[in-house]
Specification:
Length: 403
């Protein structure tokens, strides 16, 4: 038995907030798990510290599945982003420990490599089509095989996904939420010309992606998907809010553009209908928000039955600990599709030194034992938590809207 002797939550803000769980064991091996829930970070800190950690001490760190079930079924209150992020952190840390004890990189325990590397997509954005296409060209020159295109919408002051920085788009900031203004009509006019210009400039040997960020109705999404078809997008992401999965059936009736959804999902139950009715092509659930490696494997195995592939969320609010876990998972899972990769800042990378690498559009988790990611606790302690919110979205007449 490998006893859990201690666990602590490390909150740090090296440019943005991260919550990291560190679990220690009787033979000195420790493991890390990401528990960051963007804009609601401290709720998971409390869930872990006040409610989960006291139940972990003394348990056998090797019993990953049993601990997962204990935290999930045992809480009585199932699912939800706070619960599932906390369980994810415990689960990830336990896999890190098990792989370290085995003396193997985690992906070897998950069945070994199913491919040479993990294809990632980068974010090209700009305030105009020209700027966005120019940014995409730079990604292509750096070897990216898949690029997400988000451009400013003429007539709207600010839009999600668009920043002037080359790499670092950061959605959460401000002591109170920033307010964006939205017009579906203006947006819908702006996306097809963006894709047309991008295909003309970049050719056809690169995958192009787009995120609608839950702001369309199903019929609007169907129209956008259809208008993008000539430009062969890899996927249209979060076309409509997925609380009502039936909405995706309506989109499907109107377009063959592949659909991706699930970055806000936290369990297999959120994805079940979408997967079994083949209403989506890519499932975006990720390690930190969907119950860790144990639960993500379950979702992926289920999705594989229906030829739905993975496309894990990988924005900057998913820490390098999550990124490492995602890469071990992505390298080994049979039905891998693509992995999102938004680079972290240099300071974040200093706080979380890691073995994973990027080369020519592909990433690899590296061959360090465990997850292959560390936390520099002294440096982390120098950067205190700073409240930050995701933005909100309103229609031009002031109505609150999805974002
Ligand atoms: O596709 C994506 O990366 C996103 O939709 C994110 O920017 C998302 O809004 C943030 O990660 C939320 O924390
Ligand atoms: Mg998204």
């Amino acid at each position: 038995m490998l006893r859990i002797t201690g666990a602590k939550v490390i909150v740090s803000c090296p440019g943005r907030n991260f919550v990291t769980l560190k679990i220690e064991t009787s033979d000195g091996v420790y493991g890390l798990g990401d528990a960051t829930l963007n804009g609601r970070e401290l709720s998971v800190v409390s869930y872990l510290t006040d409610h989960v950690i006291p139940c972990l001490i003394g348990r056998d760190a090797h019993r990953i599945e049993d601990i997962w079930q204990y935290l999930y079924k045992g809480a009585y209150w199932r699912r939800g982003p706070v619960t599932m992020s906390a369980i994810a952190a415990v689960d990830t840390a336990l896999w890190d420990i098990k792989a370290k004890v085995a003396g193997l990189p985690l992906y070897q325990l998950l069945g070994g490599a199913s491919r040479e590397g993990v294809m990632v997509y980068g974010h090209a954005n700009g305030t105009t089509i020209e700027e966005t296409v120019e940014a995409a060209r730079r990604y292509q020159a750096e070897g990216y095989k898949a690029i997400r295109l988000q451009s400013g919408v003429p007539g709207l002051a600010s839009t999600y996904g668009v920043s002037n920085d080359r790499y670092f788009y950061e959605p959460a900031n401000g002591n109170t939420p920033h307010e964006n203004v939205w017009s579906t009509e203006k947006y819908l006019r702006s996306v097809p010309p963006l894709f047309e210009a991008a295909r003309e400039a970049l050719g056809w040997d690169v995958h192009l992606l787009h995120d609608a960020h839950h702001r369309l109705t199903p019929i609007e999404a169907g129209r956008l998907g259809r208008e993008l078809e000539p430009f062969r997008p890899f996927w249209l992401e979060d076309a409509t809010p997925a609380e009502n999965p039936d909405g995706f059936r309506l989109i499907r009736q109107h377009t063959t553009t592949p659909l991706a959804v699930g970055e806000v999902f936290n369990s297999i139950w959120d994805a079940k209908q979408l997967i079994e009715e083949q209403l989506i092509d890519y499932i975006r659930t990720t390690v930190v928000h969907a119950g860790g490696i144990t639960h993500l494997r379950r979702i992926a195995s289920f999705a594989d039955l229906y030829q739905v592939r993975t496309g894990c969320h990988g924005a900057t609010d998913l820490s390098p600990v999550c990124m490492a876990a995602a890469l071990h998972f992505g390298l080994s899972v049979p039905n891998f599709g693509v992995q999102e990769y938004m680079r972290h800042t240099e300071l974040t990378d200093q706080v979380f030194p890691h073995a994973y690498t990027f080369e020519n559009g592909m990433m690899h988790p590296g061959d360090a034992i465990g997850l292959g990611v560390e936390i520099d606790e002294d440096l982390a302690a120098k950067h205190e938590y700073k409240r930050a919110y995701l933005p909100v979205n309103r229609l031009e007449d002031g109505t609150m809207w999805s974002w």
